[in-house]
# Entry
Amino acid sequence: MDILSKVRNIESTIATRFDTAAKKLTKSGPREPLEIVHAIVDAVSREIQSSGRGKYTFPFNAVQVLVLAPSREVRDRLHSVLDGDSGVRRRIEEKLRAAGCASGVTVSLNYAARAQPNWRDPEFHIKFAHVDVPPAATVVAPTTAPRLEISVFRGTAARRTYVFVEERIDVGRCAEVKDSAGRLIRTNDIAFAEGAGEINQSVSRQHAHIARQAGSPEFRLYDDGSVRGTHIVRNGKTLPVPRGARGVRLQSGDEIGLGDARLRIRIGASSISG
# Structure
């Protein structure tokens, strides 16, 4: 066993013992925000892989962290710790840097009102991805990143409002979509609940997605072969979104129709932090 593996095992053991002792003292219950930070960083560090000769690599360049916050009060309490100067992003960056892994990993943090069945931890869920990025020489890095706020105003999803800065957002029914063999083929970022009425049932499992190219402020909506169709309502007019490669450009204030379900979007700028 190499030195980094031993250190990681020791850190995991200490964190587990600390968590167990804390729960005994408090008679169980949700963890403190700082404990959640440590648990998230520990989960990310377990994805670090040895590349031989004492070197290590992190096989992803995008980490999306979703934390349980059933109320605004809980969210504000978590946000002050998880998103601060010594929060999740900084600690993950420091962990990867200490392991000698390449920089350039994007860490996003969002909150959910309810935990989903696929969550490995009852208080948070982490999605790892590797997003293809164009060569640096052909991309001019912007000082701000577009921020997409999506509100669910017809239909039932895990949350009423979502905020994204990601380059792709999948929308459909159920959080996880599997093939006939039970293999996971897609995870919906906005998931309408299964069996929650006719409106939700009108949304296909792989209904649509929103995407933008790196460095571009433009979001486009694509239909992924849905049964009941996808459209945009803009200034009182309905614009169909046919299945195809180009999609339809979104504007702030647009309403998106997914079968009988409805979303409303707002596009703004979000500062990029280092």
Observations:
- Residues 22 and 28 are 8 Å apart (CA to CA).
- Helices lie at 3-26, 33-45, 72-82, 88-98, 198-201.
- Residues 1-131 form a domain with the hypothetical protein PF0899 fold fold (CATH 3.30.2320).
- The longest strand covers residues 144-154.
